[in-house]
Backbone:
């Protein structure tokens, strides 16, 4: 699971009654638009196309919109390690050589995920590159956004849907289902194939690692290792080469396991690689192929078709959303890792605090197989590196749907140091809204402390039954991790993990970050749980507005409210009740007047809409 960053009255706001946001172009932007018009006029003389129309594609945003979205105050930059970074310079020669191969592997993973994300991504990128060579300014600005969101389709920090391709939008099935496949046709084909006795074929379609294609009037699932055989074979080659140079034999063993898993479509090989990866603690380098299934909305539609779902379950078929993949390469930071690993020994004690703990087996195993590292990032590609109104702060993997957890494997937490700096910057707009006496208590480390125990909390709670919650599974799991981290706060303070000052700062920080710049879509798990938490805390009188419109957090009510909410969450996970999960989400995913007021103030305080990750060290290594 990943944690992502950016957001008294029970009135429900829908998309139709939230005021529409209109922003007139500042004078500088008007001047820029005039310049763009002049360039277009000049292009006619020089026979250069600035229209953005070619080979069936047309750029989806106007020149004015592109100029607005690429201005520094709206388009941030997250800088990873530089080519002269001391962290890189201190590496042994062999690890430097290995790092170059790992960067190449991660870049290839990014290319594969771009295809999984949408079949138009790479052709559209090629089109942009050709237009840039012709001098197309709109194509150049579009390409900047494309590199930031790593694809043609995205949401920004205000949850506006962005399509860089005119007349096209992201499909529910992304690139893992046929673009022209409707939900109705999908369900009908599944039902027909089951009645025709094609049970194994349906099982292959509904795993997290298959790409679904048309097969006559039916569908067929192909394991993504087979579907992208050439690309994965190239990744495996670079991992094998890295293993020849890296100075750490544990790390090399993992790389060899991972390479084998990319050559043959066998989930058990992935499980062996995951199992070894989860044991890595004292290694100089970090490499991960992340696999998470948050973004597949087509498979999740099955859970709303009660007849089809029962038919699948009767035939022993459990639908699982498709994985999207990413590549992470970094250098392990020992000082930061030592601080994080101090939390590991607390997990058994925290497990004792979980509600209804005698009714289920904890996700954390009796041997406490959990490794943790803090990493200076060299590159993040694919799903883990795309900035779509958010970026990944940390991950606790493998997720509970992965086979390695059933063969005795553990989990591993990886924290992203460079992303934390960006998070601190993004939190600045909130500070203008907080009452001064509480603003003075905030600490720069508050969100990092919270992140550590959010990730730890993923290892607590019921270890099975989550799949029955369907499209609500990820929302409720992220909700659990957030709320458990806060419910533990007083115990962690008692154990000496936090000082009283740090405790108060963490609780204030948590309450504030649940408020977003706009209402998110109902399928964005990380953002939905923030709205749910804000609503729940409002209902319990934790958050109040002063007469001058400032936020006041009743700190002593935060932990008891979190403990109360955690009980509701764990009850749903234990029971695996899809209907109860839906009712819980609907009850709490309510956009209140207080949220709308705070959102408007946040939009005034920050114009940021999206960002791009810069990877200077990785770029240098890629060119070697």
Residues:
């Amino acid at each position: 699971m990943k944690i992502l960053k950016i957001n008294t009255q029970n009135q429900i706001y829908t998309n139709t009654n939230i005021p529409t946001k209109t922003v007139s172009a500042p004078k500088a932007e008007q001047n820029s638009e005039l310049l763009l018009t002049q360039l277009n006029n000049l292009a006619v003389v020089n026979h250069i196309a600035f229209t953005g129309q070619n080979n069936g594609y047309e750029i989806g945003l106007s020149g004015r919109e592109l100029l607005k979205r690429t201005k520094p105050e709206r388009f941030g930059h997250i800088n990873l390690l530089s080519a002269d970074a001391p962290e890189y310079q201190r590496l042994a020669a062999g690890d430097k050589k290995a790092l170059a191969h790992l960067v190449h592997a991660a870049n290839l993973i990014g290319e594969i995920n771009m295809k999984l994300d949408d079949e138009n991504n790479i052709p559209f990128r090629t089109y942009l590159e050709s237009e840039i060579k012709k001098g197309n300014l709109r194509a150049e600005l579009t390409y900047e956004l494309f590199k930031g969101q790593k694809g043609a389709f995205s949401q920004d920090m205000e949850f506006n849907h962005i399509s860089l391709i005119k007349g096209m939008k992201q499909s529910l099935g992304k690139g893992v289902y046929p673009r022209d496949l409707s939900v109705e046709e999908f369900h009908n084909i599944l039902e027909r194939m089951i009645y025709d006795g094609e049970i194994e074929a349906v099982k292959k379609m509904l795993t997290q690692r298959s790409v679904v294609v048309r097969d006559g009037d039916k569908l067929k699932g192909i394991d993504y290792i087979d579907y992208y055989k050439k690309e994965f074979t190239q990744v495996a080659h670079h991992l094998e080469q890295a293993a020849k140079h890296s100075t750490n034999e544990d790390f090399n063993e993992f790389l060899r396991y991972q390479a084998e898993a990319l050559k043959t479509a066998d989930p058990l090989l992935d499980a062996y690689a995951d199992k070894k990866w989860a044991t890595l603690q004292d290694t100089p380098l970090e490499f991960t192929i992340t696999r998470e299934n948050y973004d597949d909305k087509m498979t999740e539609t099955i859970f709303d078709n009660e007849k089809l779902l029962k038919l699948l379950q009767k035939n022993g078929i459990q639908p699982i959303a498709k994985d999207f993949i990413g590549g992470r390469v970094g250098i392990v930071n020992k000082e930061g890792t030592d601080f994080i690993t101090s939390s590991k020994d607390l997990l058994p004690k925290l497990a004792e605090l979980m509600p209804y703990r005698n009714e289920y087996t904890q996700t954390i195993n009796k041997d406490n197989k959990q490794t943790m590292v803090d990493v200076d990032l060299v590159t993040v590609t694919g799903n883990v590196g795309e900035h779509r109104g958010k970026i990944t702060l940390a991950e606790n993997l493998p997720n509970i749907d992965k086979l390695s957890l059933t063969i005795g494997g553990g989990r591993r937490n990886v924290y992203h140091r460079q992303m934390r700096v960006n998070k601190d910057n993004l939190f600045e707009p909130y500070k203008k809204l907080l009452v001064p006496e509480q603003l003075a208590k905030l600490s720069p480390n508050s969100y990092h402390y919270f992140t550590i125990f959010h990730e730890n909390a993923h290892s607590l709670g019921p270890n099975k039954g989550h799949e029955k919650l369907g499209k609500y599974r990820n929302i409720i799991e992220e909700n659990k991790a957030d709320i458990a981290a806060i419910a533990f706060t007083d115990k962690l303070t008692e154990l000496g993990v936090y000082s009283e000052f740090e405790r108060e700062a963490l609780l204030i920080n948590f309450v504030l970050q649940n408020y977003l710049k706009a209402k998110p879509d109902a399928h964005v798990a990380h953002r939905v749980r923030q709205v749910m938490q804000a609503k729940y805390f409002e209902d319990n009188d934790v958050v109040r507005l002063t007469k001058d419109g400032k936020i006041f957090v009743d700190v002593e009510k935060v932990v008891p409210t979190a403990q109360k909410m955690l009980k509701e969450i764990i009850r749903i996970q234990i029971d695996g009740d899809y209907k109860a999960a839906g009712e819980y989400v609907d009850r709490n995913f309510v956009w209140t007047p207080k949220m709308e007021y705070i959102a408007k103030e946040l939009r005034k305080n920050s114009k940021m809409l999206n960002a791009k990750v810069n990877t200077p060290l990785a770029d240098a290594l890629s060119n070697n």
Q: What stands out?
A: The CA atoms of residues 334 and 374 lie 7 Å apart.
